[in-house]
């Protein structure tokens, strides 16, 4: 199979740009376009004979669904696209709106009403007459729906539609200093999330980030113009949701209608429309040039009236984002010791990014019982990445592409509904260094280890990669309705098969990195103290710098929504997932490595093998040596999903809800592939002697004399260590019994409808297990992980990890295993008053209280502070702040101006690092610990209690023109009060305690005060 990184896409961009110019009069009126997702409408028709017809006609598209009443007058309409419908039964007509992924209740009285809708009810996310979004009350799922009205009126720092999930309790949307965005739930990272577009998961199987293409990206996963509304589920999802252990987002896209509707927009900001960043203020310089341009169009309309429609949209981003290059907070003072070329790498910089997004859909309804949809989506982006301690020249360019097709056939029967989907995806991520040259890293000691001050020159060889996924799937879901036994049952069952080719290459033979230390009394700063470079392994079979694996996935589920009576509903589900990844299962540990591990440990007494030394340290290396036949795919991913809702008065005004369930995610291929690629193209690290003492820094054993000629090509470094030698080359091994990360979720709460207000209070508990991590396998001959480095060839006494106790004839042993655990308890409070034309305003309030602990930083998969992951202490999580409040609102004001606002407040989030604990030997033992930075901000009342504050406002003026056409102008002011929301920290490690404070010249979360101007046209 041939894999491509899709770099040559410029003609497509030119074509799309031309299309935008010619389509300025086109777009999509999102307030009336139909959606594409499945919802259900059910209820009672009083005094109706069995077989009475009930019809629902979509107001926008003219499509119709039919059902007949049962003997008791009940009916069920399944497979409804979210939207507004005229529902007719027994001579009565009611106009209702159903929302995405919901079950709505609509009852009809016995007397025909001649089409009047005045007395129609609004139950279970059905809104009568006006298309106002209401929360689904009778459900055990924990989550909220984000309406199109909220998408259109809430201030927005990016056009990433997931940003609005930030207003759902338990969810956090973040834009970092590089413009990269992420969405995470609970106290975990974004890897556990999944986004479903029209029911199709967008999961990333190779890299992190949850959604394919979203790892370290400033782009959007999907064009916002194509989103109609979406539902965010933070816990206790039903059995149909797979490959998710955190938050699930299910979105409905827009479709064409019986009228041609269009929209185009252009959004802009630059450095003149923002305040200075903290780094720019500190440097006393003018603002770094920056700009953000976003533009796009959408068009939808009929192909055949009431039968077939089309919808197409295009969105583009062209950014130059301001970033800050600053030293690690623990060694910030060392910046004064940098040479001129190193100091020049610090300070503000501008990071370019560009993205093009396309979505197209054609739908066709040949009968009232059938709907066929064909969709296409394409993402193409290029981004230069640098920030933190990495100067622009040492950054990398990332080409990110994602292309998907989906064909869907929905069929409705009298008492059943079937969905058949076939999909194809092609998603690749390809970083390359911006500069081909030696990399130079300046570090400084912080008391225990070296921390980075700045990186200049070329990016690491590890920044030259190609990783991606390509394949197809078929899925069928069948819903059976009207099954009566001790109540009413709606049973949904489904099966999915997916074949996906996973690909990874992890490094290239370029850009060796030389590291200098500043201010270290034991080593001069005129020569590097170490170098890292790529050296191909020699004489080892069965390894390759590229890995391809044909993964096969199976998912099965069954869900019974059991309406026991008018008060009690039970949601009983069971899911099973299975994945077979041949590159892991069939891997054979090279015999040369096996022989080395079971050979004499050169640092131990005669007869003690290296495997014996590992065993003394609690590591059974046999659990990591693969024969190609002793690994089995994980088959125990059984996931019970149980929930209930109890309607206190059977009127959906006060409903208790709760549930318990298990959810399995998956192991990222980015971790699994390292067993092969690391050994094929390892990156050994060698150290250089101090010319004055003849020793290497920290007593390292892999010690060589420095020669300036080593700067003249990677071949000189490879020759230095020996062209036929594998000494110093890293060996990565994975546990033979890898499981799959999962979470157990529990919740209990109460939802209320009080007038127009919708409230909810929920307590949730999430226990996450089997997170993946790499640890250092090396052990001293004593079996200890920490010991005197002289036991493994070091020259200086101390207490350090066994970095020099390498596999005989190779380098360090890195083992992949599971064992990261997270415990999180959250109180989720929300109140929502939906916007209505009658009241002219709407608001939402979301408060989250979190207490969470884990045994490893949520953003780190390498854990070298302890020998085994289970040896790590449980500390406070850095996944979520203790308190977080998000308030949004919209108001139809004077002169036809619509105002919107968002206030976000959060207390400081803990940071995870380590501190030295004095030992009897007189040396310090590095020990993981959490610290909470002192709050630096106040808001309205109280003192400095916040770590994050932002007040965002927007105003939109619409100018009505002839017919249904209109122009609009919009202003967004992000971070109105210019609060500094710092994201980097300074550390103090004294008296056996870790203390942290914000680095007030470093990067920030979000942006400084910024004005965004937008104009658009609709018809």
Task: Briefly say what this structure is.
This protein is mostly beta strands and 1019 residues long. It contains ten helices and 55 strands. Among the domains are: 14-30 and 144-254, TonB-dependent receptor, plug domain (Ferric Hydroxamate Uptake Protein, Chain A, domain 1); 35-128, Sandwich (Immunoglobulin-like); 518-540 and 685-722, no CATH class.
Q: What is the CATH superfamily label of the domain at 14-30 and 144-254?
A: TonB-dependent receptor, plug domain
Query: What is the first-to-last residue Cα distance?
Result: 46 Å
Extended strand count: 55
Overall mean pLDDT: 89
- Main sheet attributes: strand count, strand direction, barrel closure: 22 strands, antiparallel, barrel
Unreliable stretches covering 5 or more consecutive residues: 1-36, 112-134
Proportion of helical residues: under 10%
Radius of gyration, in Å, reads 30 Å
So what's the overall shape? globular
- Which fold does the CATH topology of the domain at 14-30 and 144-254 refer to? Ferric Hydroxamate Uptake Protein, Chain A, domain 1
The CATH class of the domain at 14-30 and 144-254 turns out to be Mainly Beta
CATH architecture of the domain at 14-30 and 144-254: Beta Complex
Kindly name the structural category. Answer: mainly beta
Estimated share of beta-strand residues: over 45%
Count of runs of 4 or more consecutive helical residues: 10
């Amino acid at each position: 199979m041939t894999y491509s990184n899709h770099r040559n896409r410029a003609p497509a961009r030119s074509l799309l740009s031309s299309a935008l110019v010619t389509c300025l009069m086109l777009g999509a009126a999102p307030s009336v376009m139909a959606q594409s997702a499945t919802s259900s409408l059910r209820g009672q028709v009083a005094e109706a004979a069995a077989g009475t017809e009930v019809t629902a006609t979509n107001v926008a598209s003219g499509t119709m669904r039919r059902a007949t009443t049962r003997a008791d007058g009940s009916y069920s309409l399944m497979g409804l696209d979210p939207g507004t419908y005229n529902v007719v039964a027994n001579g009565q007509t009611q106009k209702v709106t159903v929302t995405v992924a919901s079950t709505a209740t609509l009852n009809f009285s016995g007397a025909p009403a001649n089409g009047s809708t005045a007395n129609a009810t609004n139950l279970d996310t059905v809104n009568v007459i006006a298309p106002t979004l209401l929360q689904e009350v009778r459900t055990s799922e924990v989550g909220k729906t984000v309406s199109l009205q909220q998408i259109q009126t809430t201030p927005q720092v990016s056009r990433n539609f997931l940003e609005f999930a930030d207003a759902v309790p338990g969810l956090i949307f973040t834009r970092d200093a590089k413009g990269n965005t992420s969405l995470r739930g609970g106290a975990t990272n974004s890897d556990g999330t999944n986004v479903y577009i029209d029911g199709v998961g967008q999961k990333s199987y190779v890299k992190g980030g949850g959604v394919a293409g979203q790892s370290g990206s400033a782009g959007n996963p999907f064009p916002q113009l194509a989103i109609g509304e979406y539902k965010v589920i933070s816990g206790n999802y039903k059995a149909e949701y797979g490959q998710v252990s955190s938050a699930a987002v299910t979105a409905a896209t827009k479709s064409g209608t019986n009228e041609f509707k269009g929209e185009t927009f252009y959004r802009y900001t630059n450095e003149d429309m923002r305040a200075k960043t903290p780094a720019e203020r500190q440097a006393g310089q003018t603002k770094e040039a920056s700009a953000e341009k976003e533009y796009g169009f959408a068009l939808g309309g009929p192909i055949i009236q009431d039968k077939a429609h089309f919808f197409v949209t295009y969105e583009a981003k062209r950014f130059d984002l301001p970033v800050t290059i600053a030293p690690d907070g623990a060694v910030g003072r060392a910046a004064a010791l940098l040479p001129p070329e190193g100091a020049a790498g610090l300070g503000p910089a501008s990071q370019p990014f560009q993205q093009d997004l396309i979505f197209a859909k054609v739908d066709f309804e040949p009968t009232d019982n059938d709907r066929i949809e064909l969709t296409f989506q394409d993402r193409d982006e290029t981004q230069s990445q640098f920030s933190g301690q990495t100067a622009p020249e040492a950054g990398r360019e990332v080409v990110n592409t994602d292309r998907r097709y989906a064909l869907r056939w929905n069929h409705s029967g009298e008492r059943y509904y079937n969905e058949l989907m076939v999909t194809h995806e092609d998603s690749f991520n390809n970083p390359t260094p911006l500069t081909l040259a030696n990399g130079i890293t300046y570090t400084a000691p912080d008391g225990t280890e070296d921390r980075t001050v700045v990186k200049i020159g070329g990016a690491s060889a590890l920044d030259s990669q190609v990783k991606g996924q390509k394949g197809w799937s078929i899925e069928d879901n069948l819903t059976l309705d009207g099954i009566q036994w001790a109540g009413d049952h709606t049973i949904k069952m489904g099966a999915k098969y997916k074949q996906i080719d996973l690909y990874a290459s992890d490094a290239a033979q370029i850009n060796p990195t030389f590291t200098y230390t500043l201010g270290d009394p034991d080593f001069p700063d005129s020569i590097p103290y170490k170098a890292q470079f790529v050296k191909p392994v020699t004489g080892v079979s069965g390894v390759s710098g590229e890995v391809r694996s044909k993964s096969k996935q199976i998912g099965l589920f069954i869900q019974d929504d059991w309406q026991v009576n008018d008060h009690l509903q039970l949601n009983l589900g069971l899911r099973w997932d299975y994945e077979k990844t041949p590159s892991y299962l069939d891997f054979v540990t090279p015999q040369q490595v096996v022989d080395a591990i079971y050979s004499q440990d050169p640092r131990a007494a005669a007869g003690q093998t290296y495997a014996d030394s590992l065993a003394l340290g609690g590591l059974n290396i046999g659990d990591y040596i693969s024969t190609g036949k002793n690994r089995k795919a994980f088959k125990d991913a059984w996931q019970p999903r149980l929930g209930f809702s109890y309607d206190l008065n059977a009127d959906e005004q006060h409903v208790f809800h709760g549930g318990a369930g298990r959810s399995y995610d998956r192991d990222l291929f980015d971790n699994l592939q390292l067993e092969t690629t690391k050994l094929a193209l390892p990156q050994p690290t060698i150290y250089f002697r101090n010319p004055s003492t003849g020793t290497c820094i920290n007593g390292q054993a892999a010690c060589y004399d420095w020669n300036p000629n080593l700067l003249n090509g990677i071949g000189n470094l490879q020759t230095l260590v020996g062209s036929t030698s594998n000494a110093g080359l890293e060996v990565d091994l994975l546990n033979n019994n890898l499981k799959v990360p999962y979470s157990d979720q529990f919740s209990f709460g109460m939802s209320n409808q009080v007038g127009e207000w919708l409230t909810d209070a929920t307590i949730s508990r999430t226990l996450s297990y089997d997170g993946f991590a790499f640890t250092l396998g090396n052990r001293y001959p004593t079996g200890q992980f920490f010991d005197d480095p002289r036991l493994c060839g070091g020259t200086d006494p101390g207490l350090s990890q066994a970095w020099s106790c390498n596999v005989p004839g190779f380098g360090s042993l890195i083992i992949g295993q599971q064992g990261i655990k997270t415990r999180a308890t959250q109180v989720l409070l929300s109140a929502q008053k939906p916007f209505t034309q009658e009241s002219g305003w709407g608001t939402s309030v979301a408060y989250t209280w979190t207490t969470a602990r884990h045994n490893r930083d949520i953003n780190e998969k390498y854990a070298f502070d302890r020998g085994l992951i289970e040896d790590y202490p449980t500390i406070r999580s850095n996944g979520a702040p203790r308190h977080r409040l998000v308030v949004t609102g919209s108001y139809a004001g004077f002169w036809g101006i619509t105002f919107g606002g968002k206030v976000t407040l959060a207390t400081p989030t803990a940071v995870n690092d380590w501190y030295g604990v004095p030992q009897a030997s007189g040396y310090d033992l590095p020990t993981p610990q959490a610290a909470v930075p002192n709050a630096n901000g106040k808001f309205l009342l109280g003192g400095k209690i916040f770590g994050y504050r932002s007040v965002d406002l927007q105003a939109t003026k619409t100018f009505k023109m002839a017919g249904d056409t209109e122009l609009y102008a919009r202003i967004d002011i992000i971070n109105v009060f210019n609060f500094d929301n710092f994201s980097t920290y300074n550390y103090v490690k004294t008296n056996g305690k870790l203390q942290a404070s914000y680095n007030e010249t470093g990067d920030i979360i979000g942006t400084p005060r910024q004005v965004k101007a937008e104009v658009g046209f609709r018809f």
